[in-house]
Specification:
about 325 residues; alpha+beta; Aminopeptidase; 4-stranded antiparallel beta sheet; 3-stranded parallel beta sheet; about 40% helix; about 15% strand; elongated; disordered C terminus
Length: about 325
């Protein structure tokens, strides 16, 4: 078996149609969705509209669709759909690559080879950390992902099914990929108004985008509140920004000085933006205090508390800075 990825063209019409006819005859749901979205019997229209282009009017994530062509047997044995970036829906359940093998070609190693070829296409798109998702019950799919370096991050329940989320790093110290989100700034403010401290309010708003569950995010960010344990040092929202920056591009290799530098530079960049907007990054200066308070006990949240402190504005500012530097915010990108 000698596979290569090809686009849908007249040259491969017979081979593609044979695969789809076989697949439809089984009654199975064909995956990836992209190859069943249109009627292949009008093959010219199918080829022209198979892929979602960048800047499309529907606000969908652009993608490429390839068919796995076996040169030795002159047949198409599967297909892959590669999304150019992740939105919130694809980050949860979908990932960068959707793949499927025609029924008669399974358990022959096709999926492992096909994913390997798809990863090369991801590199061309500048994606160096690839997310793939599969049903927990699909042992073969999970094996093909792991054969290509997939590392299980977590399992989630989607419509009653347990889905496994795997990350594949295509280079050392690979960073999380671009994530396009709808703005969550007001979610951070709502978290603060509900009683969470400043650090928690910002951190939990975005931690799920890096695979962290809410309880862990609340626990790890709690001590940063009040300028770290209410000592009124660096503002808790600035600490939250730094930790989220670490989840995005933090260094994992002790010998990689460039990666450390990049992480520190991002922290400085966000802190400088915060300082420019608020005059300081120090909690007691923001609150107009001369020194830290003697007690570690937090103040009671009353209407007077919210009216007398700038903390709501501060939380909103930190969230806006985060979205500017860590994410791409688009209000018209649809989930799918």
């Amino acid at each position: 078996m000698k596979l290569r990825l090809v686009k849908a063209t007249k040259e491969y019409q017979r081979q593609i149609c044979e695969m789809l006819e076989e697949w439809y005859a089984t009654g199975e749901k064909i995956i990836p969705y992209a190859i069943r979205r249109l009627d292949f019997h009008d093959f010219d229209y199918y080829c022209e509209n198979l892929e979602v282009p960048a800047g499309n009017d529907l606000g969908l994530v652009p993608d490429f669709t390839f068919f796995a062509y076996d040169e030795e047997r002159d047949m198409v044995v599967g297909a892959v759909n590669i999304r150019h970036y992740l939105n919130e829906s694809l980050l949860l359940n979908g990932g960068h690559i959707g793949d499927g093998v025609r029924p008669s070609e399974r358990r022959k190693g096709v999926a492992t080879q096909m994913i390997g070829l798809a990863l090369e296409e991801c590199k061309k798109l500048g994606i160096n950390k690839v997310l793939m998702v599969c049903d927990k019950e699909n042992i073969g799919s999970a094996k093909s992902i792991k054969n290509n370096g997939g590392v299980l991050q977590n399992e989630i329940e989607v419509e009653g099914n347990i889905e496994q989320r795997y990350w594949i790093s295509l280079e050392s110290n690979a960073h999380y990929p671009t994530i396009r989100i709808k703005s969550r700034v007001e979610d951070a403010v709502a978290n603060f108004m509900s009683g969470f401290n400043c650090a928690q309010s910002v951190f939990i708003t975005y931690a799920d985008l890096f695979g962290m569950d809410r309880e862990t995010a609340l626990r790890i960010s709690c001590p940063m509140g009040g300028g770290m344990g209410r000592m009124r040092e660096v503002c808790g929202t600035v600490s939250a920004m730094s930790m989220l920056g670490g989840l995005k591009i933090g260094n994992t290799d002790p010998s990689n000085q460039d990666a450390k530098t990049a992480s520190y530079e991002l922290t400085r960049l966000m802190a400088d933006a915060f300082r420019e907007a608020n005059g300081t990054i120090i909690c007691k200066d923001i609150l107009g205090l001369l020194e830290r308070e003697a007690s570690a006990a937090p103040s009671e949240r009353t209407p007077e508390y919210y009216a007398s402190r700038p903390c709501v504005k501060i939380v909103r500012c930190a969230a806006q800075i985060l979205e500017q530097h860590l994410f791409e915010v688009e209000h018209d990108v649809h989930n799918r």
